[in-house]
Design brief:
single chain, mainly alpha, Rossmann fold, Tyrosyl-Transfer RNA Synthetase, 2 domains, three-stranded parallel β-sheet, 54% helix
């Protein structure tokens, strides 16, 4: 019985952190056994916000790919590649853009939000057309499912609409893709806000055990717990919130009972996190010491992706009489 096909990717806009690990990568590792999986580093997508910092995109695409593997993705089970190494993505993006109404793109909620967040006076075609490139990524592999966050659902629905419009004009080429929402509570950062590299409140997969301990020491805790024997309260405590995400809220029981202080609670969390990250760090260090291994894996992944992309583009060109 053949497996369904799955595709997902991440932008190389910075180092990956615990939120990326638990919100996406850990799920990807499970799914690679259930699907014919394609996972890619979306470097062309990163140009929408890092156009003037392409040297950082080049740096982070290797870091992100390294973290993919360190988290447990197996190149024997899935294809791991860099988006720009499969040029067919750009061709399909171009062809799909010809039949995508501008009004559809203007209505995407995340486009409006990003425009406001970046305080843009003028909007590039690339930023507005981000969902079309995302559609090309998905349709290229005729993915059955796409693991996405809640904020990406409008993009996925638009991808279906773009695929249907193409099919209506040129014949049935692309199947509908389904979104796969991951049940996951947002990872709190050091300051209690959602963990994000843009907030500077993240624990990164490349952080050493010592760096992790030091970062946990700075985490926000219950402002009402002044002394060790004061009862702690879960509300407003980033340490408790992170323990809760990991299903370890009972580690906070002694704090709530006034038996331990905040620093002891932080030590418990730091030890737990270092245990969680130990095998990831081991795999990561091995890859960093042998960079040629990463090159081989990305080249093999791109070759596997190109084989599928070549077949898809032959069908598309024939349907369009090119």
């Amino acid at each position: 019985m053949s497996k369904g096909r799955l595709l997902s990717g991440m932008q190389p806009t910075g180092l990956l952190h615990l939120g990326n690990l638990e919100g996406a990568l850990a799920n990807w590792v499970k799914l690679q056994d259930e699907y014919e999986a394609f996972y890619f580093v979306a470097d062309w997508h990163a140009l929408t916000t890092m156009l003037d910092r392409t040297e950082l995109i080049a740096k982070y695409r290797r870091e992100v790919a390294t973290d993919f593997l360190a988290a447990g993705l197996d190149p024997e089970k899935c294809a791991i590649f860099v988006q720009s190494d499969v040029k067919e993505h750009a061709e399909l993006h171009l062809l799909l853009s010809m039949s995508t109404p501008v009004g559809w793109l203007e209505r995407v909620p995340t486009f409006k939000e990003k425009k406001e967040q970046l305080h843009l006076e003028t909007v590039s075609y690339g930023l507005m057309g981000y969902p079309v490139l995302m559609t090309a990524d998905i349709l290229m592999y005729k993915a059955d499912v796409v693991p996405v966050g809640q904020d990406q659902l409008p993009h996925l629905e638009l991808s279906r609409e773009i695929g249907r419009r193409f099919n209506n004009i040129y014949g049935e080429i692309f199947p509908d893709c389904k979104g796969m929402l991951t049940k996951y509570a947002a990872m709190p950062g050091l300051d209690g806000r959602k963990m994000s590299k843009s907030y500077g409140n993240a624990i990164y997969l490349c952080d050493s055990p010592e760096e992790t301990i030091e970062k946990v020491r700075t985490m926000f805790t219950d402002p009402l717990k002044i002394r060790k024997d004061d009862p702690g309260h879960p509300g407003g405590c980033a340490v408790y919130a992170m323990m809760d995400v990991y299903g370890q809220a009972d580690m906070h029981d002694d704090c709530e009972a006034g038996k331990i202080g905040c620093m002891q609670c932080k030590k418990r969390l730091a030890n737990f996190l270092n245990g969680r990250l130990a095998p990831i760090r081991e795999r990561r260090n091995e890859l960093v010491q042998h960079p040629e291994r990463l090159d081989e894996i990305l080249a093999a992944g791109a070759e596997k992706a190109r084989k599928v992309a070549k077949v898809t583009m032959e069908e598309v060109r024939e349907a369009m009489h090119f």
